[in-house]
Design a protein that fits this description.
Elements (H helix, E strand, L loop, with lengths): L1 E8 L1 E4 L8 E6 L8 E8 L2 H8 L12 H14 L1 E5 L19 H13 L3 E7 L6 H15 L9 E8 L8 H40 L8 E6 L2 H14 L10 E7 L21 E8 L4 H9 L6 H4 L11 E5 L1 H4 L11 H11 L11 E3 L7 E4 L1
Parallel strand pairs: 1-7, 6-7, 6-8, 8-9, 9-10, 10-11, 11-13
Antiparallel strand pairs: 1-4, 2-3, 4-5, 12-13
Helix pairs in contact: 1-2, 2-4, 5-6
Protein name: Alpha/beta hydrolase
Organism: Candidatus Tenderia electrophaga
InterPro entries: AB_hydrolase_fold (IPR029058), DUF900_hydrolase (IPR010297)
Length: 382
């Protein structure tokens, strides 16, 4: 089977042709850390092996699907044989985007292609990976997430197309060296991703204006965002850039749902006055998934001297979260099975899919139960 993935990246390309590179590396783009390339990558995979991973049962759960194993397999497929095609651009790096004469933006070309897909009844989910992930692992993880989310559909029956944002995480698996390096690169990459979201904002505004003038049909599907691990720190710094260029008092509403999975950020980051206090402004709903048995959170917390992590035991003070923000404790389900990448595992992935399909938090279909009678936003997967 042939698999295709849309991507955006501020990684440096490798190979003689930047529009058809061999791969992307662990350094920032040669044009600067905020420079983004947009493109598509295609690869071949064994459909029988893919199906086996999608139907694999882990532990005693009836909700099948091992996205972790599938991501590993697809990363190997990408390494073995894949084709990368970047969207061509013609821009000047010394002039702001809004004032470029005769500019050609790769972002606009990709947004046009995404709109065509969305018009065929498909939502789009933007995915930001975490720490210690190379190009091949990023592609494998994004494609696995896409296949897992589409293995079963609920209300509406829409497809979900995953778009990867991959930043120069070094993928070297050296905890005391790579983590510090990735942390710095995640901060700079947040500014790059913010630049990409500003491009998306402008594209959607122009699309709406053109549609109103011409009477042409507008896309009626939703955009979502999923950040894993240190990818949440990328998002934290994205908000800095969005605030710098916001047109009004509030940030633009870009997403329907934002999923913060195993977030490697401070546990009070969503509170008023903190770094991500206005995250709810760019989405209709925000969901935090956490697991107290996540060893990666211990590494970040204890060995790096960070405050308690949001991905460990959730928000420090749930009562101070915005009404649009909910948190889900995954520890009971994932303990001993999949500690950090549980968003790719059947039951948790299904919970994400329920939200995308508009099924309420307390619907009988959902595996959640309310943890505290005093909090309407604190849940446990059961």
């Amino acid at each position: 089977m042939k698999l295709r993935l849309f991507y955006a990246t501020n990684r440096r390309h490798r190979g003689d042709n930047r529009w058809a590179p061999d791969e992307y590396g662990a350094e920032f783009s040669s044009d600067g850390m905020e420079n983004l390339r947009f493109g598509q990558v295609t690869l071949e995979a064994d459909s029988a092996l893919v199906e086996r991973h999608l139907k694999r049962k882990k532990g005693a759960q009836t909700d099948v699907g091992d996205g972790e194993k599938l991501a590993d397999y697809l990363a190997k497929c990408c390494l073995k044989s894949s084709t990368i095609k970047a969207y061509h651009e013609r821009i000047r790096s010394d002039i702001a985007d809004a004032h470029q004469p005769n500019a050609k933006f790769g972002s606009n070309s990709m947004f046009d292609d995404l709109r065509k897909v969305m018009l065929k009844r498909s939502d789009v989910l933007v995915y930001i990976h975490g720490f210690n992930v190379d190009w091949y692992q990023a592609v494998g993880g994004a494609l696995s997430l896409q296949l897992m989310l589409n293995r079963q559909k609920y209300q509406g029956g829409k497809d979900v197309l995953v778009v990867l944002f991959t930043w120069p995480s070094d993928g070297q698996a050296l905890p005391f060296v790579s983590y510090k390096s990735d942390r710095s690169e995640a901060k700079g990459s947040g500014y790059a991703f913010g630049r990409g979201l500003l491009k998306l904002r402008d594209f959607l505004a122009e699309l709406k204006t053109d549609g109103a003038r011409s009477g042409s049909p507008l896309c009626d599907q939703d955009l979502h965002l999923l950040c894993h691990s240190m990818g949440n720190y990328v998002l934290q710094n994205t908000l800095v850039r969005l605030r710098d260029f916001a047109n009004g008092k509030n940030l633009p509403r870009l997403f329907s749902h934002i999923f913060l999975c195993a977030p490697d950020v401070d546990d009070d980051v969503l509170e008023a006055g903190k770094e991500m206090c206005d995250l709810h402004e760019i989405a209709r709903s925000v969901t935090v998934y956490h697991n107290k048995g996540d060893m990666a959170m211990y590494v970040s917390d204890y060995t790096k001297g960070h405050p308690d992590r949001l991905g460990h035991e959730g928000a420090a003070r749930p009562a101070q979260l915005h009404r649009k923000a909910h948190q889900v404790d995954c520890a009971v389900l994932v303990g001993g099975l999949v500690e950090h990448s549980y968003y790719l595992w059947g039951p948790v992935n299904s919970d994400i899919r329920y939200s995308i399909d508009g099924i309420g938090h307390d619907d009988d279909t959902v595996r959640r139960r309310r943890l505290h009678v005093n909090y309407n936003n604190v849940w446990e997967l059961r």
